[in-house]
């Protein structure tokens, strides 16, 4: 195994993780809710009245974060290699899969592992392994796909 | 007050995603690519988030109400079923293909990237599709609404 030292960012990644954990803590302790993004968004698609405001507000915060970031830090340059069609397929799988599996990286990965939920441990293992396998196949087996 | 708190939490969550590198699909795929030149950074994101999360959930689990007086909605299910595993595998495949999971996709959409907009639209489509399939499957039996997310 070779490490990609050029892109390795242990400090900022850890600090970002601490912020994510703090945000999940805030939503739990103030709103009594789990910070699972797919669940929060999914709840907006089949809305129940008393349950909409906090979901909309949380998603609004996510959408506003880049603007706040730009007030204090230089713009980020994310690498998005996939084309529009590929991303549409990926989005469809992510939407359906997180619905069917009741959660994503935040709900199962961060919150679920934090509270030692056996369901979330299994889910996290499953999506991580599937992610590893998918990238392995696309990058190292399918000619031209990388 | 509750909505304001949720907005603040979303904002902080988004900043964390940006700082951590989770909102960079290239970095996510660099993490998932064990056989290539591996970038382990995202393991540090999980470590940071869980350090805080574990302490807070241990404390929060014992509370009957939140500090703002809301009911605590903490999942109680412990059963491992096919849906959980199959759904998570499908999610993982989509994550590996695009490098986006739901939170980072929304944040990237918020920064105005057209590719993230396409991903988010498709993701909402996938969620609606799941919801529709769910209603179709449940129809024969009488259908109690399960809020178990």
Walkthrough of the structure:
The complex is a heterodimer of chains A (146) and B (149). Chain A is 69% helix and 1% strand. With 146 residues, chain A is mainly alpha-helical. Chain A has one domain (14-140). The longest helix of chain A has 23 residues, at 118-140. Chain A is globular, with a radius of gyration of 17 Å. Chain B has one domain (2-138). Chain B is 66% helix and 1% strand. Chain B is globular and about 45 Å long. Classes of the chains: A mainly alpha (146), B mainly alpha (149). At the A-B interface, strand 1, helix 1, helix 2, helix 3 and helix 4 of A face helix 1, helix 2, strand 1, helix 3 and helix 4 of B.
Summarize this structure briefly.
The complex is a heterodimer of chains A (146) and B (149). The model of chain A has no long low-confidence stretch (mean pLDDT 94).
- Number of DSSP helices of chain A? 6
Overall structural class of chain B, as computed from helix and strand content, comes to mainly alpha
Amount of beta strand of chain B: under 5%
Work out the helicity level of chain B: 55-70%
Assembly category: heterodimer
- Low-confidence segments of chain A: none
Share of β-strand residues of chain A: under 5%
The number of domains of chain B is 1
Gyration radius of chain A, rounded:
17 Å
List the helices and strands of chain A in order: EHHHHHH
Largest interface: A-B, 115 and 119 residues
Provide a count of the helices of chain B. Answer: 6
Main sheet characteristics of chain A: none
The residue-averaged pLDDT of chain B reads 93
Order of helices and strands of chain B: HHEHHHH
List low-confidence stretches of chain B.
none
Span of the ends, CA to CA of chain A: 19 Å
Largest sheet of chain B: none
């Amino acid at each position: 195994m070779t490490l990609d030292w050029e892109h390795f960012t242990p400090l900022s990644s850890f600090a970002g993780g601490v912020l994510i954990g703090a945000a999940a803590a805030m939503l739990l302790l103030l709103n009594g809710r789990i910070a699972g993004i797919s669940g929060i968004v999914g709840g907006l698609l089949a809305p129940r009245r008393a349950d909409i405001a906090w979901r909309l507000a949380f998603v609004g915060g996510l959408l506003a974060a880049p603007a706040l970031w730009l007030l204090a830090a230089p713009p980020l340059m994310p690498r998005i290699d996939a084309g529009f069609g590929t991303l549409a397929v990926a989005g469809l799988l992510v939407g359906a899969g997180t619905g069917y599996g009741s959660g994503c990286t935040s709900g199962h990965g961060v919150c679920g592992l934090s509270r030692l939920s056996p369901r979330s441990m299994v889910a996290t293992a499953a999506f991580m392994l599937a992610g590893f396998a998918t990238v392995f196949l696309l990058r190292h087996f399918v000619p031209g796909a990388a | 007050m509750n909505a304001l708190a949720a907005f603040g939490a979303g904002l902080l969550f988004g900043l964390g995603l940006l700082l951590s590198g989770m909102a960079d699909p290239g970095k996510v795929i660099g993490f998932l690519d064990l056989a290539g030149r591996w970038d382990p950074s995202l393991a540090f994101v999980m470590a940071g988030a869980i350090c805080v999360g574990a302490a807070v959930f241990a404390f929060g689990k014992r509370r009957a109400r939140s500090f703002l007086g809301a009911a605590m909605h903490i999942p109680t299910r412990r059963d491992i079923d096919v849906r959980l595993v199959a759904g998570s595998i499908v999610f993982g495949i989509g994550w590996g293909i695009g490098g986006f999971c739901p939170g980072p996709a929304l944040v990237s959409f918020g920064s105005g990237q057209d590719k993230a907009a396409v991903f988010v639209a498709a993701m909402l489509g996938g969620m609606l599709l799941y919801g529709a399939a769910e209603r179709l499957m449940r129809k024969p039996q009488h259908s109690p609404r399960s809020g178990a997310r």
